[in-house]
User: Fold this.
Amino acid sequence: MNHFGPDLLAVEDAVSGYRYLLSRGISPGRIAIAGDSAGGGLVVAAMLAIREAGLAQPACGWCRSGRRHSENERKRCGIRPENRISHGQWRL
Assistant:
């Protein structure tokens, strides 16, 4: 086990998977990393680890939280569809 604890093992696994895809000749521009709920935090952590490793960033990192994206929550916060973040507009 890694001396940083079990939480970072998931990040290491994600980066290892990303390195594997790159080693198979898959372009970073064709790779997306996505996660829901706690997996969204893993997406952010993995993208930061990818950047720190000096690797090219994947085309997309998509983090979803069911509560944030619910219709009632969007209305309560005044989030309109035209204000959503689309592909390529949010980079770490």
Residues 72 and 78 are 10 Å apart (CA to CA). Residues 85-92 have pLDDT under 50 and may be disordered.
